[in-house]
Protein 1
Amino acid sequence: MIESDLLVIGGGINGAGIARDAAGRGLSVTLCEKGDIASATSSASSKLIHGGLRYLESYEFRLVREALKEREVLLENAPHLVRPMRFVMPHARELRPMWMIRAGLFLYDHLGGRHLLPGSAALKLDPDGYGAGLKPEFTRGFTYFDCWADDARLVIANARGAADLGARILSRTRFDGAAVEDGRWRARLTDSETGQNMEVRARGLVNAAGPWVNQVIGNVPSANRKMRILLVKGSHIAVPRIHEGDYALILQNDDGRVVFIIPFEDEYSVIGTTDVPIEDDPEGVSISDDEIGYLCRAVNRYLADPISPDQIQWTYAGVRPLYDDGKTDPSKVTRDYELEAQSPAPGCVLLNVFGGKLTTYRRLAEHALEKLADDFPQMTAPWTHDAPLPGGALPAESFDAFVAQLKRSHGFVPPRHLHHIARRHGANCETILDGATSLDDLGTYFGEGLYAREVDYLCENEWARTAEDILWRRTKCGLDVESEGRERLENYLQSRGPEVARTG
């Protein structure tokens, strides 16, 4: 029997963020996730930390303001995982008028108290500049800044931070149900791989199961289901790099939505996203031919050299659990979150998390713990606002300066590979590289800068167990690692045997 103050169900960004915040306030925390950490919605986003420019059209000023503020918090606390990115919006005359875009960008610049990022501006789309690769009729546009983020690694960093503060992280552990017993929750868990059963006794349950939030409620007989969620699939495609330059394109579409073209992993562009309501089980969703066609048509409206489905190198899809506010158009359904606390019996509380977005996870966690404050009077004050995530306390004034230090001290690692390791781990990459004076010291090479020394670290500290965990969530090496390298990795992991991350 595991004794905890809180049992958090769900290892996505909201669950990991709540677990870290709660552990840092002195609560004992257990988190269970039926798959790998960040294996569902939280690793299938557009990988943006942004205010949500288009949400202004729906008058969601509170959400945009909060997101813009959080954008700057994450820039400060996770400079290795979150970086500024310029966005260029070509103006399509037949869609939103120039004055409307200017007004929206003015609000976007000022609503969140921007300090770290440049403001927006109108610009000419020069064929040798920001207009490169676009059709010649697109001559004017706008630019503004948001941020790019490695979504899966942001989740891992929060889970690691929670574990460092004493939380127990149980990946690949399914929540089977809970009932009130002797004034506490008695929850049943099952190891998804071995079938081993375990129990957790806790005062509070936090249901952060994302698309499966209602299934969790259904497994708690004393819970009262009040909220509705709308499951919306968002899909992306990755193609060979469309344009040079470290900036993204935001393209207006004639259905009122926008589609992004985002630079990704040096050689690719990610294009997304779609909004498709689903009613089936969200497990294992994938992109449809219709979605591929939609994304290709949306970007080909602007590109001088159109893309086609046969250029696609990778696709991914995730299901967003949106709070159902009654709107029929999925793209207009709120991206805000709702928190619902229930007390089925004295001494027991259930908190259900509906909706949310990657950018606002930290504030969602703070609001969640505010909801639980009366049940846990021993909790200390909020603390995450200026607390770097693991790897985020760089021993240099900027990420670029940190990488320059690494190049001086570990010049034997190819610069591109060293940069990627630094992006993944920040200050913690020193642990991976410590004592190494040659590539041979880093062990077996699997391809794309991935060595055994880093694989060992991922298994021992980040709950990685399979090649997929490592190639697609802990890194994005899966895009380029050859089949031989993947086979070497699978054999290496098998030779290591089962690994449980520390405090996991």
Protein 2
Amino acid sequence: MATITVGGLATGLDTNKIIDQLVALEHRPIDLLETARSSAQAKELALQTFNTKVLAFLSAVDDLRDANDVLLRKASSSNEDVLGATASAGATAGTTTITVGALARNAIATAATGVASADASVSAGAGSFSFQVGTGATQTVALSATTTLQQLATAINDLDAGATATVVNLGTTAAPDYRLQLTSDATGTSHDLTIASEGTTLGVAVTQTAQNASFTLSGFTDPVVRESNTVGDLLPGVTLTLRDTGGPVTVAVSTDTDAVTTAVQTAVKAFNDIAGYVADESVVTQDTTGSDRQVQAGPLAFDGTVRNILTRLHDLVSGQVSGLPGRYNSLGQVGLTTNRDGTLALDATKLTAALADDAGAVSELFGGTSSVGGVADRLHDFLAGVTQVDGLISLRSTAVSNEIKRLNDDIASGQRNLDQFEATLRARFASLEVLVSSLQSQGAFLQKALGGTA
């Protein structure tokens, strides 16, 4: 729409200023709508951030939801050079003594004769090189007079048969001595190597047979045999890594107090992040400098949904869990309390003491039992509900989004009416200028016709 600009040339009025002031006055309802939209947009963003923080708390809570995850264990070895030990969730606290008699090893076959380079021929003519890993199928590589050492190694590896061929130089750069080495990929006697057909000039033969690991536990006379030096099926939740023969070595499994404390601290931090954010976004202030003393409120200051969620979280954290078999039924008993500002505080010393006293009861307080849900279970159920697609936060966010959409529509409609109002004003003032100019011309004409001075 073209804008008619008038300047009061005939009337002497500052018509542009008059129109701007009238339009500004008519713009007040739109100003109020835009202020309401800004407030709604701030609330929408605040709800999105609130939801993100609630999800972060849910993730931290889930790490405490299983009693085994809470009852984190650590393992130590009295001689790391002989064997190492690590513990996972579900490991039983206690000690055991292990003596390592033998380490598991791979089978190795090597060439008795070398060649001058990796590209040198290793066969006098047509033939084959065959080998077997354990009781597996016999693997065969066809040979010809042009088959080189490197080609033989590559062909063996391409079979992917559980053994790896390597070209090694036992000599020097000046006097090379390239040999073939064939090694079983896995340790243990079931992966032993057998050279079934040796059609090369290398004289490949088994020079190291495969071997199982062998060790004894205190109290048992018969040795324990495994095909690998990594043993994860001996002690529940404990992985042993055999490194050398020797012993006795004491393996001790205990509660990893530091890890448990860290997991609880992570959850506390996530909860406090929610409480702190809601507090910051709920501040209400009053401007005392102006005469109208306007009140400014944060986007979450009067949001009932957010308040109800935070109140429910406080109830779940501070409440008791009935039906647990252990001696602890509230987080306050293990060092987790609520501050006056609504945040949580963790007394790590008290938590450590509770773990030392009855680690199982602490883990059940958080993770529950097969029949009773713990604090983390109850928090999970509530948090998962409020953050799901049709949960409380989503419904509140949708309501705010709909409000923003309505305000946008109202603002657009109001602006269209205002544009029409301004266009009408300009047209009327333009007509007024034309009318006044016409009257002035007529007056001048009559004055001149009557003998006056024009």
Protein 3
Amino acid sequence: MNVLKPEYQLETFFEKVAGAQKRALLLDYDGTLAPFTPNRNEALPYPGVKEILQKLVDSGPTRVILITGRWIRDLVELLDLERLPEIWGSHGWEKLTPDGRYEIGRLEEGPLQGLAEADEWIESEGLAARAEPKPASLAIHWRGLQPREIEQLRRKIEDRLSPLAKRRGLNLHEFDGGIELRIPGRDKGYAVTTVLDEMGKDTAAAYLGDDYTDEDAFVAIRRRGLSVLVRKEFRPTEADIWLVPPEELLDFLKRWLQATSPDH
């Protein structure tokens, strides 16, 4: 564990978690709870994570929320939990509550048409196997390719999709392992802000993430909770501390569970 900002110490933080009336544990999935894999449909949680996550969900004192760029329906299959946490998918556009209520934000016709045009182009270029369509975005993955192949694919995508994005009111974002065409207006920071506004200022909260898309969440939780970068190798970040998975991640989750147990 590496403290990136001296004012943040885990001992003090977990004391606050233990004594809090309200708690929120906000978690990214890919790269945070699960290692990246060339096949995104095989990205299962690190060993031990599923069991702790289930205990956190079942124990009750914590509002456990997954905030992901994935389509919720795809993530549910990977989690394979008996009782699901709250899930915000598609960078904050979707929401699934633990009791099964599903919501999706209002999406404008112009950007949706842009995603459809992009999907047609991807199909025509033979890239469908690398594409991940979602309700408010379209991701193209290049994990597993060689650096030269990645650069060629990146240039091809940007040359074709940058003009389309501008014309249709979309944004083009690179992430760890690909590039994504997204409808603007929501991101992981939006989800974090919405949750913490609902819960109030006395909430003990933490957000754990790994990717550049998690930086929006790190900024949103600033001065309202702890932001945690979870990745094997360090990169510049707005996060308060850095954990190396899986050992330090598991330790953090266990300490949260211990801090919120009735016997603490």
Protein 4
Amino acid sequence: MSRRRIAALALTIGLGTTATALTTTVAIAGEKKPDFSKLKEIEEPDPCKNDQGVTDDTIKVGVITIESGPAGAGFAPGAEQGIQARFDKANAEGELGDRTIEFTVADDTNDSARNLTAARQLNEEEKIFGIISLTGVAKGGAGYLNEEGIPVTGWHTGENVWGIYPNMFSWRPTQAPDNRTVFTTRNADLLKELGAKRIAVVGSNVESSAINADQAATAVEKTKGLKLVFKTTDVTVEQQDFTGIAAQIKEAKADGVYTSTGGLQANGLTQALDQAGIELKAIVFPGGYDDRVTGLPGYDGAYIGTEFVPLEVGSPGLTEYTEAMESHGFETLRFFALHGWFSADAFVEGIKAAGVSCPTRKAFINNLRLVKGYDAGGSFLPVDYAKVFGRPAACFYYVQVQNQEFVPIFDGEPFCATQMVEDGEARKLKPSEIKIG
């Protein structure tokens, strides 16, 4: 593998897994949160008339993901492999009655315009029933897919469109429609729990990374017992030398660091901090739960969060995932493979909710929104799809990199935020809010 390929791979794993540098905020004026309180289950039509993409023996699904370009190294082939493994399992076990799932993939190269083109192509030319979206630019085609009434499952990658359009189902909590100003204090709470008091925040000048860093800094300022001593969002995409930043962090006497950079940049920052002789209580990376980063020296000792139970902890659903992936000869500890599996599992759940005898797009969207307690076999906190819509996640699972392995912390239990920040004001989260993730 070339050095350029390695660099692209590490950057994508570190940033893509957290959705900080792959996305930008979408401002949609006048959008209001849908009211799901009066939804009633839609019954299967009788007699059955097949929707587009559905025949008497197949259901055709479109997948929009990133297969090429700099971000493709992290997404492909894992995302497609996870989807394939889950759909193959559904087909082999007859989960959808007489029908099996077929899927076709469109590459948006992590470009918004191409995302819209891919959505149109899959709907108008490939005649799919629904979409799985695993990309950093779902915003490109989100409005079109909503207007067409096409069900979409996937992972939010930090994009707020998943909390705006009711046809879109991230398998876990989404984002607030205005994710610049509504977020939890989870990262600050974590740093405090790990013993840090004086916090440095490092972000890049990429809009989404800067937003994430701003949120972390505000969360620190709103958390009793913590002090923000350094912050920058001036890191460029190309920057690899962090000597100057490390010197400023040392001068500020920080004992905890949160960075919204990832991959080789996070690796370089950590090594610079070590070379400067800075002893930290904790350094938190936005993501990177993928075995391809454990060999990077700067990741050793870092804390990384996931929205799902770590494989090291396990669940019945994750056992099914591991067995299915291994039966195909696929790698298991790949971040987007897991997201592919969960996204496909949520799609299967949507078809079951719509009714396997005659699934329709309208029933899929309506009935899946009514599902409560969905957790993919205990693989994450149970989801109430009506309540999580438009909400940032309150709870994550955390691992620490130790000797090139991921070690779960907090006894493998989820760690939850204590506060929600809304328009600059912090309020304590209610137990009922934490319970839904």
